[in-house]
Amino acid sequence: MSALKLGIGGPVGSGKTALVAELCRRMGSELQIAVVTNDIFTREDAEFLIAAAVLPDGRVTGVETGGCPHTAIRDDVSMNQLAIEALEERFPGVELILVESGGDNLSASFSPDLVDASVYVVDVAGGDKVPRKGGPGVTRSELLIINKVDLADRVGADLSVMDRDAAALREGALVLFTSVVHGDGMEEVVAWVRTAVRQRSWTPTGSTLRGDGHHYHDHA
Ligand SMILES: Nc1nc2c(ncn2[C@@H]2O[C@H](COP(=O)(O)OP(=O)(O)OP(=O)(O)O)[C@@H](O)[C@H]2O)c(=O)[nH]1
Ligand SMILES: [Mg+2]
How many domains does the structure of the chain reveal? Predict the structure, then answer.
């Protein structure tokens, strides 16, 4: 069976690479994981993950997209597809391939030709208005993660507002609150990814992965 391709999207600096690293650390012993990162002008994220040694050698590939990061995950996904194929060829048992997009401005989304499901990561530092601004990542991703809850008080972000706005836009699909660097909420994310890998087949709209409207509040 081919690997589950899981897109990780979201604005610049929201914590996508931190999330990828943490998923590799927490799930690397139970699952065979590989990673493709997209950067606009560098391979910085791939280099960070390789330096952090979150996965065995060779399992992290950096794609340098140039120009517009949306194109490489939505319109012309060939660079990413080649990177994925190379990983699958090299590691035939791979079960999960995480594809991190370049940071965007809420308007990017993954092509269904590239990934089986997507996680969209926003953070509280931009204020509690962010989920309300919508965009395809916020509304249509299988999982929305609201990260950096440890900073909420400092920036005056009201998490209940973010939860309510996200729930309204997502028609009840799953939203998880995390502080990736401190570990809060990560167990729920890991459980969700585990389910996704097990299920392996769903349609984005009828997906049980989008949740049943139940919300988690593990940021206490
Ligand atoms: N306080 C806090 N900082 C975090 C958290 N998660 C990530 N960060 C920090 O936020 C910064 C950006 O995190 P990255 O993981 O590089 O963000 P990214 O979304 O991959 O960024 P780009 O790939 O450049 O778009 C880093 O300095 C992280 O350590 C969190 O939960 N809380
Ligand atoms: Mg990154």
Answer: 1
